[in-house]
Structure formats: C-alpha cells, structure tokens
Amino acid sequence: MALVRVALGARSYDIIIEEGSLDRADAHLAGYARKGRLVVVTDANVAKAQLPRLTASLNRAGIAVAPIILPAGEQTKSWRHLEQLLDQLLALEIERGDHVVALGGGVIGDLVGFAASILKRGCHFIQVPTTLLAQVDSSVGGKTAINAKAGKNLIGSFYQPGLVLIDPSTLDSLPPRETRAGYAEVVKYGLIDDPDFFAWCETDGQRLLDGDGDAREYAIERSVQAKAAIVADDERETSGRRALLNLGHTFGHALEADTGFSDLLLHGEGVAAGMALAFRYSARLGLCPAAEAERVTEHLKKVGLPHDLASAHVKADGAALIAHMLHDKKMAAGTLPFLLARGIGRTFLSKDVVLDDVAAFLDEDRAAAT
Ligand code: NAD
Ligand code: GLY
C-alpha cells in the first residue's frame, strides 16, 4: 500500500494506492457513510465489472449502497446526464456533509466531481478510479467538467475530492486498448520533468501493460506523486506549472477533433501522438536533440500507441489541424501556448510558436513518415 498526500491546506486529501482495496473498501470508506449508506455513481461497464466488489465489501460492514448507473462513454459528460444525476442525488436526499462515491474512469470522475461542486452549493465526493488514465491523472487534482456544444470540458470547476482510493486490480477488467491509452499519461510524467521515470517506462512499461502488479503499482504511485506535487504548487493552473500536464494535448486535441472525438482515437492515444509530435517539432526548432525525440517516438510505437498522424488515423492537413487548435480553450489573448521540450524531462511552455510553421511541420512530418 502507498499513501500520497495532496497538500492543499484545508482542502488537502489522501490518495491510497492498494491492490485489492475495493474488496476492503469498508476499511477505507466506512467513516464516510452517513446513516449507514453510501451513494455510488458509476457507468454500465464498471457496474458489471467492479461495482459488485465494492458493494460486497461495504455490505459486509453493514453499509448499504445506493447505486446510480449511467451509460458508459464520453456523451455522459453532458448537461442532460448532469441534470439527471443531480435529480437522482436530490431524490436520495444527499446533504452538504455527504460524500458521493465516483466509481469509474475519467468520465464518471469528471461528471460526479462537477455535480458535487454544485449540489446544494457543494457536497463532498470520493474518487475510486477504475481506468489507468483516471488512476494516474483525472482522479487527482480536482478538475471537473462536462462537455459543451462548443467543445470538450468547457463547463466545469476546480473542486477537490475528499479521498482518492485506487485499486490497481480494477484494471484487470479494463480493455487492453484503454489501458494502453492511459499509459500515455504515465509516460507524460517522465517526459515533463522526470527522465529517470521515462527510462523506467522504456525498460518496464510493457510489464505494466501486461498486468504485472508491482510495475502497475509503482507507475501509479510515481505518477500520482508527480501530479500531487504539481497540483499542490499550482492548483488552478495560474503559475504555468500545472499547464505542463497538458504536454501533447494541443496537438492531441486537434487530432481528436479531426477524428470526431470518436473511438477511432481515444483521448490517451491522441495525447501519445501529440507528445511525439511536440518532441519532433521541438527537434525541428533545434530545441531538443533529434535522438531524444526519436526515443520518445520509438517507445510509443513499441508499446502500440499512435505516434504520428497516420497511426492516429488523422486525414487533415496541417492548416486544418491548426484550425482545430484555435478552438482549444487554452488559447489565451489570441496566442496559442505550446508545450515544447529541450529534451526528455525538460518540457516548457512556449508562447511564441508560429502557427504557420506548425502547419508546415505537420505536413512535412506526414510526408516523412510515408
Ligand atoms: P472512460 O471513463 O470513458 O472509461 C473508458 C472506458 O472504460 C469506458 O467504456 C468505461 O465504461 C470503461 N471502464 C472503466 N473502468 C473499467 C474497468 N475497470 N473495467 C472495465 N471497463 C471499464 O474514459 P477515461 O479514459 O477513464 O477518461 C476520459 C475522460 O477523462 C475524458 O472525458 C477526459 O476529458 C477526462 N480527463 C479528465 C482529466 C482531469 O484532470 N479531470 C484528465 C484527463 C482526462
Ligand atoms: N490533466 C491535466 C490537469 O489535471 O491539469
């Protein structure tokens, strides 16, 4: 078992990482059950694969579970499902002092976090993440959101959970493609500022993907330590440090937009290709040694993640991808901040990238790969 603290003064909380903790959930969650009951929000897939474990352990301790089961998928992060969820929580008489449990991936975590932030002007919530992406990234740090017609994650709040309970064994039922997509976010921490961790990914990342318990727990712990430190330092992304967590996201977002935010390219897959592009673009600008950009590309390729436009199923040319980027919410005062790198573990925020040059790079990069 590992314990990581997110140090945010009165809003501080623990992240518990413990293999099998879902089967011992009563030990961690009993103290949060008011009147002997916990409301657990989940999606249909997780309800089948993991909810019975959580329910059994809580029931053994005499705690009743009131489940709310939503459809699986990104469309659930919508006004419609937010409204339905809020009505259901109100019908269950959730009070401000109550803790609602979010059992699922980033979709459930983001939606439940947002609902908790506005229900009766704020009740508590607990993250029990069940995808690798949610375990290493979205469950920590309090970004909550739903999607708008104008774009993804445009309506939301910063609202920290009261506890994050991570059971890596929940990944046993996760489709391998989803695990691989989440792995991109693990690699991201190495690329941002931890070259030793990237080297670990090169040697041991495949063990994690193969389901090795030790590798999985190690990578999750190291990732959440990195995220907790960044969030404690820059909770609301004002100093620029938290923005480093968006490495690969500006390129990735454009790739996801071009593929219609569909199953053709999962979020983590877009991030993977986006990180490879950010490193190759940094090399093209002479900022990053070409050999290091090549190492990034090779690792992503080796584990089966998209690493260029073709492997990301992207058809658009550079200009069209730039148009997608301009819709990104990270655009500030007419400029588009880009995360570039001086090498592995040396990511920085650049505000003077020339968009026409990025478009030309994307076209050249596609041509070079064919
Ligand atoms: P997801 O929640 O849609 O889960 C992916 C799929 O796996 C779904 O079909 C789900 O039902 C299924 N699933 C989840 N856990 C399972 C399990 N243990 N066994 C079997 N099936 C399981 O997607 P995700 O990749 O976890 O999250 C993506 C979302 O996270 C996006 O909406 C993205 O915007 C958001 N996100 C938020 C943050 C943040 O900081 N808040 C960071 C990154 C991503
Ligand atoms: N996933 C980016 C962040 O939490 O800031």
TrEMBL record:
<dbReference type="Pfam" id="PF24621">
    <property type="entry name" value="DHQS_C"/>
</dbReference>
<feature type="binding site">
    <location>
        <position position="143"/>
    </location>
    <ligand>
        <name>NAD(+)</name>
    </ligand>
</feature>
<keyword id="KW-0862">Zinc</keyword>
<dbReference type="InterPro" id="IPR030963">
    <property type="entry name" value="DHQ_synth_fam"/>
</dbReference>
<keyword id="KW-0520">NAD</keyword>
<feature type="binding site">
    <location>
        <position position="249"/>
    </location>
    <ligand>
        <name>Zn(2+)</name>
    </ligand>
</feature>
<feature type="domain" description="3-dehydroquinate synthase C-terminal">
    <location>
        <begin position="182"/>
        <end position="331"/>
    </location>
</feature>
<dbReference type="InterPro" id="IPR016037">
    <property type="entry name" value="DHQ_synth_AroB"/>
</dbReference>
<feature type="binding site">
    <location>
        <position position="152"/>
    </location>
    <ligand>
        <name>NAD(+)</name>
    </ligand>
</feature>
<comment type="pathway">
    <text>Metabolic intermediate biosynthesis; chorismate biosynthesis; chorismate from D-erythrose 4-phosphate and phosphoenolpyruvate: step 2/7.</text>
</comment>
<keyword id="KW-0028">Amino-acid biosynthesis</keyword>
<keyword id="KW-0057">Aromatic amino acid biosynthesis</keyword>
<keyword id="KW-0456">Lyase</keyword>
<feature type="binding site">
    <location>
        <begin position="106"/>
        <end position="110"/>
    </location>
    <ligand>
        <name>NAD(+)</name>
    </ligand>
</feature>
<dbReference type="Pfam" id="PF01761">
    <property type="entry name" value="DHQ_synthase"/>
</dbReference>
<dbReference type="GO" id="GO:0009423">
    <property type="term" value="P:chorismate biosynthetic process"/>
</dbReference>
<dbReference type="GO" id="GO:0009073">
    <property type="term" value="P:aromatic amino acid family biosynthetic process"/>
</dbReference>
<dbReference type="GO" id="GO:0008652">
    <property type="term" value="P:amino acid biosynthetic process"/>
</dbReference>
<dbReference type="InterPro" id="IPR050071">
    <property type="entry name" value="Dehydroquinate_synthase"/>
</dbReference>
<comment type="similarity">
    <text>Belongs to the sugar phosphate cyclases superfamily. Dehydroquinate synthase family.</text>
</comment>
<protein>
    <recommendedName>
        <fullName>3-dehydroquinate synthase</fullName>
        <ecNumber>4.2.3.4</ecNumber>
    </recommendedName>
</protein>
<keyword id="KW-0963">Cytoplasm</keyword>
<dbReference type="GO" id="GO:0003856">
    <property type="term" value="F:3-dehydroquinate synthase activity"/>
</dbReference>
<keyword id="KW-0479">Metal-binding</keyword>
<keyword id="KW-0547">Nucleotide-binding</keyword>
<dbReference type="InterPro" id="IPR030960">
    <property type="entry name" value="DHQS/DOIS_N"/>
</dbReference>
<feature type="binding site">
    <location>
        <position position="267"/>
    </location>
    <ligand>
        <name>Zn(2+)</name>
    </ligand>
</feature>
<dbReference type="GO" id="GO:0000166">
    <property type="term" value="F:nucleotide binding"/>
</dbReference>
<keyword id="KW-0170">Cobalt</keyword>
<feature type="binding site">
    <location>
        <begin position="130"/>
        <end position="131"/>
    </location>
    <ligand>
        <name>NAD(+)</name>
    </ligand>
</feature>
<dbReference type="GO" id="GO:0005737">
    <property type="term" value="C:cytoplasm"/>
</dbReference>
<dbReference type="InterPro" id="IPR056179">
    <property type="entry name" value="DHQS_C"/>
</dbReference>
<feature type="binding site">
    <location>
        <position position="185"/>
    </location>
    <ligand>
        <name>Zn(2+)</name>
    </ligand>
</feature>
<comment type="function">
    <text>Catalyzes the conversion of 3-deoxy-D-arabino-heptulosonate 7-phosphate (DAHP) to dehydroquinate (DHQ).</text>
</comment>
<dbReference type="GO" id="GO:0046872">
    <property type="term" value="F:metal ion binding"/>
</dbReference>
<feature type="domain" description="3-dehydroquinate synthase N-terminal">
    <location>
        <begin position="68"/>
        <end position="180"/>
    </location>
</feature>
